[in-house]
Request: fold
Amino acid sequence: MEEKLASIDFGKITTIAIDYGIKIGQALILLLVGLWVIKQVVRAVKKIIKKTDIDESLSGFLVSLLTWALKILLFISVLGQLGVATTSFVAIIGAAGLAVGLALQGSLANFAGGALILLFKPFKVGDLIEAQSAIGVVKEIQIFVTKIITPENKEVIIPNGALSNGNITNFSSTGHLRVDLTVGISYSDDIEKAKTVIMDTLMSDPKVLKTPAPTVAVGELADSSVNILVRPHATVADYWDVYFNSLQNVKVALDKAGVEIPFPQQVNHTAK
Reply:
């Protein structure tokens, strides 16, 4: 027993223990300092996000993603400080990330699209938009999909990936829409009189915007009528009311003014 104890190099063991003790101490210091730095970074990012007015659901996800990414980097750094080869860990994490990315590439595209929509805000909840062959009012913007309600009261769910990469027509961005109508009058009628009647009718409608003013102009000399372009403006909410009311009110006003609205006629000649 005494010979075995004598063969043990306690000096070497002590040196190794001291070396590992120093490494463990340095790793603990790195861990504590790293966690403190991560906490400060996350806190600063939260403040920046609040100032940029990013959607709450997106900001929470981004903060969580950043926190875990920094902690993983810190964990790898601590292992490296302890002398553990971290190359294999990096390779495993990279391979796992690639596998997850390939498996969820559609979902990741939708997430990226949702992040872009929430960040750059090409539209907001309540806007009337046309996208991906659908038109309707935006009901909800989620991370992966956007929900809109069509004029037929149908809910359409559009993936954000396709939505962010396609054309988006926002009818609400300017605050008003132009209503496009065409009214035909007879060639024998007074054009200026008809235009005045139409303009007075539009201006008397409280739902027709006064600024920008309506446009009433001759648009075409058709086969059987002089076609007058009628262009009132309305808010998005009043669009259809102005559309239908203008058609009816202009017809009634022209009838009262004795202005004829021609209709297609066919004359048949029978040989005797």
In short: The longest helix spans residues 10-52. Helices lie at 2-7, 10-52, 56-81, 87-103, 105-120, 160-165, 191-203, 239-256. The chain has eight helices and ten strands.
